[in-house]
Amino acid sequence: MSTKIKSPKNLPKKPGVYIMRNASDEIIYIGKAKNLKNRVSSYFREKLDRPKTQILMSHFDNLEYIITNSEKEALILEANLIKKYHPRYNIQLKDDKRYPYVKITNEKFPRLVITRNITKNGVFYGPFTDVGSVRKTVKFLKSLFKIRTCRNMDGPCLNSQIDLCYAPCDGKITEEEYGEIINKIDLFFQGKYSAIVKNLKKEMEQAALNEEYEKAAVLRDQITSIEEIMEKQFVDLVDDDLDQDVIAIAAGKHEIVVIIMLIRNGKIIGRDDFLMSGSEYDSTSEILFAFIQQYYGYNRHVPKQILLAEEINDKTLIEEWLSDLRGNKVHIKVPQKGVKLRLVKMAEKNAEIIEHQKKNLENSMIELKKYLKLEKLPRVIEGYDISNISGKFAVGSKVSFKDAKPNKKRYKQFKIETPGPNDFAMMKELLTRRLKLIETDPEPDLIVIDGGKGQLGMACDVLEELNLTHIPIIGLAKEFEEIYVPNSKRPIIIPKNNKALHLLQQVRDESHRFAITYHRKLRSKNISQSSLDDIKGIGKKRKINLLKEFGTIDNIKNASVDELAEVDGMSKNAAQNVFDYYH
Fold first, then answer.
1. Which pLDDT belongs to residue 75?
2. pLDDT value of position 121
3. How confident is the model at residue 523 (pLDDT cuts 50, 70, 90)?
4. Tens of pLDDT along 7-50?
5. Does 386 share its domain with 520?
6. What pLDDT, in 10s, does the model give residues 526-573?
């Protein structure tokens, strides 16, 4: 990198990247150039046509540059530097998603694992945008092909005993036979289902000829399972073996929604959406270029063909770069007719729908700001709830919404230590413990608790004790959906059909769901380790009914035989057994 300069006068006529800074030495723009001197000189003309360039140069103080061997190298470096420094005036892909990959491990008898880290060892497929779906797929493949799941291969495990593993650790399958199974899994992730079925049918016919009927039956079931996947999982479009991505955008007020549809073997296998910021003064062509540059520059599968709604600048350059990443030729096309044009139109429609939804979410925050008289837009809202049964298995939940959508990375569950039943004291403990974590978990723009004046008063006391009274807080009373705010006797009533109320209800209901889920988990764990298991005639169903009725083991101990017998599913003999056990 060169020393800082104020003008393009001494810039070389070589490819490279230029880095513009303001008077505070902050990076405000990063660009690439085939010829640094010519490109940067265009910013210093007397008349600047583009509003973005005028604004950029009004903040410009100095620049640095990096020379590269080619324009293609400059393209890659530009993308990396934008990702690192996030300059104010660059178009940026707002992608905080770390998608999972499926990995076939590099072992003698490989395993199939889900990971978010790319390493040099193993074969990787992905990334996959639907985490739930990929987990189901991996589980399906493990059970279908019976590959090993254990780490150490230290002897036959339960999976081999229940016929879910071929037990290579016990020598029940050769390395060559196991390798053939792994090849089928590889074909599966390439989307070559027909090839897998064809191979399996050959194996099944051969097994039948050899009178290996049990093996033939297993192969038949595998064929049936894969054919069901072929029917259900994908949307057929056209008899086309091309590997394609379709990209479309919809412009918002401050951000751009980008949709990408993944097409493999003529079938839509997935769709994802992204936001691009810093694009207020840029053309659609520039936004598409920036998206392609930043999206594919981050460990993503590069397709053979990319379909767009319009041409982009420097198309040849970006095609060359993508071809290098893929290992063979990549084409960027703007279809004019047929199925490919319909795909682009479909992607555009999806982008418009998401932009409309985003606008509605933004409107709900604007409405909420207005009704609650907040100083700023409540972009981060946190909801809290307590769940317990007569004070037992008490838990608290914190959920977080960012830009009116659940932000599950910021969810948190708490085991409540306050003896109960005392919901006020439990909520006080929950809020205190959470708000003491402000340094590691930034404060929200709004706190929502489930309850009316009493709960709100207690919550305000917590904020005061922790010197956090500047954080807005409300209580949402469920019966009439009344909103209580500090220092006000009358509740705020938001119309039932208003987006602001719907957002608050969603936060409240999600915190309740999250708390109950954790409570049930703890209760279930306790039930599974109950002393009731030792009593003759008490199975899982009777045990659950007893605990539901009495709440705790101590209450069951103190119950009479008649009280025990009245519980759903209990007989007189079973009740007597319980009574005798504890007495």
1. 92
2. 80
3. low
4. 888 889 999 999 999 999 999 999 999 999 999 999 998 887 78
5. yes
6. 554 567 777 888 887 888 788 878 877 878 888 899 999 999 889 999
Number of domains in the chain: 5
CA 472 to chain centre: 28
Give the 3-state secondary structure of 332-386: EECCCCHHHHHHHHHHHHHHHHHHHHHHHHHHHHHHHHHHHCCCCCCCEEEEEEE
Closest listed residue to residue 548, CA positions, set 416, 423, 385, 390? 390
Rg, C-alpha atoms of the chain: 31
Two tokens, residue 321 = 């770069």
Length of the chain: 583
β-bridge mates for residue 402, sequence order: 380, 405
CA distance 71 to 213: 62
Would the pLDDT of 51 be above 90? Answer: no
Nearest CA to 34 out of 306, 288, 291, 316 is that of: 316
514 lies in the same domain as 411: yes
CATH of the domain at 432: 3.30.420.340
The Cβ of residue 202 has, within 10 Å, a number of other Cβ atoms equal to: 11
**Which pLDDT score, from 0 to 100, does residue 233 have?**
47
* 18 and 86 part of one domain: yes
CA distance 143 to 127: 22
Q: Which of 35, 56, 90 is the last residue of a domain?
A: 90
User: Poorest-confidence range of 19-33, 135-149, 226-240?
Assistant: 226-240
262 neighbors 269 (Cβ within 8 angstroms):
yes
Residues 296 and 267 in one domain: yes
- The answer to whether residue 362 is domain-embedded is no
221 with 286, same domain: the answer is: no
- Residue ranges making up the domain that contains 285: 243-356
160-173: pLDDT as tens digits: 666 678 888 888 88
Q: Residue 46: which CATH number?
A: 3.40.1440.10
Contacts of 93 (CB under 8 A, 6+ apart): 258, 274, 275, 276, 290, 291, 294, 295
Q: What contacts 24+ positions apart, CB below 8 Å, involve 349-352?
A: 350/248, 350/259, 350/261, 350/271, 350/273, 351/248, 351/249, 351/250, 351/257, 351/258, 351/259, 351/273, 352/250
Residue given tokens 């606008």 in the structure block = 359
- Give 443's DSSP letter: P
Q: Where are the beta strands (DSSP E) in 253-324?
A: 256-264, 267-277, 305-307
Average pLDDT (428-443) is 89
In a domain, 497, yes or no: yes
pLDDT at 66: 92
Same domain assignment for residues 491 and 443? yes
Query: Span 42-68, mean pLDDT?
Result: 88
- Give yes or no for a contact between 485 and 386, defined as CB atoms under 8 angstroms apart: no
